[in-house]
Amino acid sequence: MSENRTALQIEVEECWDLLASATVARLGWNAPDGPVILPVNIAVEGRTVTLRTSSASAMTRQVDDSPVALEVDDVDGETRTGWSVLVRGVASTTFEGVDAGSSAEPWLDGAKPVTITIRPREVTGRRVVEA
Amino acid sequence: MSENRTALQIEVEECWDLLASATVARLGWNAPDGPVILPVNIAVEGRTVTLRTSSASAMTRQVDDSPVALEVDDVDGETRTGWSVLVRGVASTTFEGVDAGSSAEPWLDGAKPVTITIRPREVTGRRVVEA
């Protein structure tokens, strides 16, 4: 395994392109009992990242008006090369369709979507290439 | 896109198998200015996850003796199916080889490796399948 790798900063415009091309990201937040990371589907609209969950989950309760991290990457574990983009900002949650279904609906059926919007304060990216 | 998906809990033994099969994970911690997530290479030894960084980076300084989250996943963004495993625990850092190279060595060359060990207190996994 080559140890000759170089880390390059990814410019913010390309970070947004990479975010927009990703469908799966990981959302991180600081729960009362410590950090949590969960995979989420994201959408990029302008300079905002949104994601939808379908429940009053721990995520929904804990991230509202709180600092979060959102990460996308494409890394090759063997060569340890690839890229990652990190969005740090504040999340807010919007409950939609609260009158559209029963409160007993299981969360995976999407009947009660919650939209989490992340207002970025910092967007950074790093690409590691073989030198 | 099917909305008929089911979430299944992954038993802890299989979580460890999935962790052991992964080379790339994401480490999350709560930095002084909010959550951070970065991709890392991991190794699983027994019931401990270790990773190596090669510098006195922000990660190294901030995670020592602190709660962290470590996530691995394989998720299909289109079908929103796949699995993820989350390790929550406390990290500790060990500086090795401090006398093996110049302190001016660039961090990517691996001359001054730092080992971060995560002692898990909670290992959980979830698999989302089409119903």
CATH topology of chain A: Pnp Oxidase, Chain A
Q: Calculate the terminal CA-CA distance of chain A, rounded to whole Å.
A: 13 Å
Q: Give the percentage of residues in beta strands of chain A.
A: over 45%
CATH class of chain A, named: Mainly Beta
Rounded Rg of chain A: 17 Å
Protein chains sharing the most extensive interface = A-B, 39 and 39 residues
Helix content of chain A: 10-25%
Number of domains of chain A: 1
Looking at the overall shape, the CATH architecture of chain A is Roll
The geometry of chain A reads as: elongated
**Average pLDDT of chain A:** 84
Q: Main sheet of chain A: which strands, in order across?
A: 2-3-4-7-6-5
Q: What multimeric state do the chains show?
A: homodimer
SS summary, helix count of chain A:
2
Number of strands of chain A: 7
Low-confidence stretches of chain A: 99-107
- Name the structural class of chain A: mainly beta
Keywords:
mainly beta; homodimer; Pnp Oxidase, Chain A; 131 residues; six-stranded antiparallel barrel
Task: Please render the helix and strand layout as text.
The structure is a homodimer of 131-residue chains.
Chain A: E1 5-10, H1 12-21, E2 24-31, E3 34-45, E4 48-53, H2 58-63, E5 66-76, E6 81-95, E7 114-130
Antiparallel strand pairs in A: 1-7, 2-3, 2-5, 3-4, 4-7, 5-6, 6-7
